[in-house]
Every structure is written in structure tokens, then in C-alpha cells.
UniProtKB/TrEMBL annotation:
Gene3D superfamilies: 2.40.50.100, Nucleic acid-binding proteins (2.40.50.140), P-loop containing nucleotide triphosphate hydrolases (3.40.50.300). This is Carbohydrate ABC transporter ATP-binding protein, CUT1 family. InterPro entries: AAA+_ATPase, ABC_transporter-like_ATP-bd, ABC_transpr_FbpC, ABC_transpr_MalK/UgpC-like, Mo/tungstate-bd_C_term_dom, NA-bd_OB-fold, OB_MalK-like, P-loop_NTPase. Belongs to the ABC transporter superfamily. Residues 4-237 form the ABC transporter domain. The lineage of its organism: Bacteria, Pseudomonadati, Pseudomonadota, Alphaproteobacteria, Acetobacterales. PROSITE patterns: ABC_TRANSPORTER_2. GO terms for molecular function: ABC-type ferric iron transporter activity; ATP binding; ATP hydrolysis activity. Keywords: ATP-binding, Cell membrane, Membrane, Nucleotide-binding, Transport.
Amino acid sequence: MARIAFERLAHGYPGSSAYALKPMDMVWENAGAYALLGPSGCGKTTLLNIVSGLLRPREGRVLFDGHDVTALPTERRNVAQVFQFPVVYDTMTVRENLAFPLRNRGVPAAQARMRVEHVAGLLGLAGMLDRRARNLGADDKQKISLGRGLVRDDVAAILFDEPLTVIDPHLKWELRSRLKELHRQVPVTMIYVTHDQTEALTFADRVVVMSEGEVVQVGTPEALFERPAHSFVGHFIGSPGMNFLPCAVEGDAALLPGGHRISLPRAYGPLTGKVELGIRPEFAALAQEGLPVTLRRIEDLGRRRIARVELQGVPFAATLPEGMVVPAEPRLALDPARLHVYADGRLVEGRG
């Protein structure tokens, strides 16, 4: 296990003065489960490659347990990696594939056998240990890749780069759940790269949300949902994402388009830049009383219904309460305790 720290870490690629990874200071604690979440091109894999040693940063340092490893190659960092596409030896059995990292390190045969059988049991591979890998499907091959990372008990960290991409959708939930359970049983630092919010929020204790090379928020899944520190996090987390309404803020009130005035749970000083009021669809509902809106359509998502409305021309998603008949003149009710104010995309704290 390792405590991984970044000190003023940043990276840019040759021929460009722009940052592919903007300067950051961050710590990942021993035995933590972290997810790097964001859209393609946001810097997730760049950061993972810097941790693994495949890439040397242009600026700053990487520390494992306080030791500077910035210049060390991958083989000297003692990390295990699981990639998007499974890397297995088709001519070997499942048992031989799992034992390969241990054999390379001279682990005694009896100890290696016990470790392989333990990890195989955790991954659901116990019944196929003596089968050749070439006869297995992509999902079982990826389980082998996961197992080769988990079978070692001396790794500083296990790095997962989009490991479930090739897995059938109906098996993804099972593997995500297994990974979460594995982390409880195998206390090792795990870093999981994904663009899928469900994967990140299911697996990780703390999620690192990235956008355009910048870490915009690090927090628990609950914190990302309930109190996004950046409008990007509000948009990216949740389905549908957070609503944002342009407004002006005066003390503890927000003035919306059309002259509507809403009381806020906190008071704010003078704000500059682009000011918006944010609230998630889960905390806004069609109602008999509230802000007048124009209904555009109803989306039935199975367990709930979402009303797509417009408030003074601004698109808005709200919950349609179960059993409610849409009124002829629909209104929008907002939970005041769930309202957040953003200035130029950043959450403004306000006063009590």
C-alpha cells in the first residue's frame, strides 16, 4: 500500500505551451478507493500514466509514502495495472495466469497456490482455474487481468484504466460490486479511471472529477451530488444533471428571469461574473403553486417521471410526483434548502 501525493504536479506535451494537466496538489491516502471521473480528453489517463511511471510530468513531484518517485520507471514503483482490454496469456491456464506475477517474484509455490485460489474465489474464477485462457470470453479474461493485479500483496497501488469497457453490460454491475467487495477484503490503494459516473460512484470512496485538465472537485459520491463545487460537476453527475438558472443575488434572495424572487438558505455579498442558481431535478417538482412554467414533455424513466419545462425560456428538468395529474397551468416548486449559488461556475459558500 502507498500514500500517493502530488506536489504542484502539471503536465504538457512537447510542442505545446498549454497544460494537458493543470497544476495540482492532492493526496490519495493508504488503502483508499479513488475514481478519476470525467469526459474523454480531460486528463484522467494522463494523470494515471504519471502515477504508474509511463509518463514523466513536466512540472512537480509524485511521492509514494513520502519518497519522490517522479523519475522512477514503472517497474520500480511496484504498481499493478489493469487496462481497458484484457492482457492474458492464452496458452496458459487461469491458474498459471494468476500465478505469473508471483512466480516472477520468487514467491514459494505453496504460498502462491493459496493466494491464487483465494483471489480466484473472490472473482468467481475458482471453477475454471485449470481451463486455458484462450477458451474464455472477454469478461472472464478481464477477471484474470483484475486477479493478476490483486494476487500480489506487496503492491503500492492497483491502477484500473477503463477496465469494464469490453464487459457485457449485464455483467458490469456484478464486476463493479466484486471490485468494491475486493477492496474491503484487500486493503490496497486503488485508482480507477472511467468516464462512467455509475462506475465511479459505485466503486470509489472518493471521486476526483476532472474537466479540461483540471481537478474541479474531490469528494464522496454524496458530496458530489448534494453540493457540487463547480457547475461542471453539477452537469456531469446525475441523470438528468443539475439545473442552472441565470439570476441576480441580493443578500438572501435570488432574482430570476421574469422578476421572480426566491428566498435563499444563505446570504451572499456582492457577486460578479456569471451568477447562476443551481438545483437538482430531485429537489424541484411540478406543483399546484410556485413558479409558472411551460411544460414541454414528460419522460418516463421507469421508477420516476421527469418533467421537461421552460422557465422564462430557460430549459429545466423537474420531478413529476407519483400519481400527480399535470395541472393545466403547471407550476414549479423548489426546495429552498437545496438551492446553491454559483459565480463563473464556482460554488459560492454564502453566510449561515
